[in-house]
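Problem 12. The chain below contains 251 residues. Write out its predicted structure in token notation.
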Amino acid sequence: MTLGIIGVGHLAVAVIEGLIASGMAPGDILLAPRGKGPAMADRFGVRLAADNAAVVAESGIVLLAVRPGAAADAVADLGWRPGQRLVSACAGVPIEALQRAAPEAEVVRVMPLTAASIGASPTLVFPADPDVVALLERVGSPVPLRREDDFEVATVHAAVYGWAQALIATGAKWSAAQGLDEATARRLAARTFVAAGRMIAEQPAPMDDLIAALATPGGITEAGLRSLERSGVPAGWEEACDVVLGRLKGS
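Solution.
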């Protein structure tokens, strides 16, 4: 099944990199001719369409990764076939808005991360169309949602992903400033977050219990957590989540 992509920006590039790394044949990917499409065609040998209508005509699944404000216009009047999958990675754009613009298509919402490039994206998906889920498994782990109403809340984590990288970088740079080798500091900071994430994901104990087991009275973890609380970090993090959710909901 040919995958077409409309909107070849940094997110689409990450997905393309992951798909090619997973063994997907370059000939099975068809790109719109604008943005980074020509560069991706040169780099990977994927196909380049004449225009967006050609992408739709020749693809079984079409990934839409344009700016949210341009999403509806980008898919209108392209000759969609009944039941053809329109897979939207446009944050904050509901299924209804795209369905009005392309009523023949079956709209699926997804939200991959740039970690798709290394096959490590936890990608939101609603509804969980089997062919779309199989495609997403090539670039990481699909996270099916039960309701579209959950999508905006879950999409906040796409922003958290960037904040986590900023926090990792802060820790790595601090360690390097104290004299630790820069490469070691970067690797250690990154792997510490991977380890913390795996504990939360894979251990059945309540999250508060896992944290309490680390923050023993008088210990270094407790001391650091108390310092962060005095600095307003937890409240600031929650406020940032609220800001992002408001943006996604258009408020």
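Discussion. The chain is about 50% helix and 15% strand. Students who got a different answer should revisit the alignment rule from Section 12.3.
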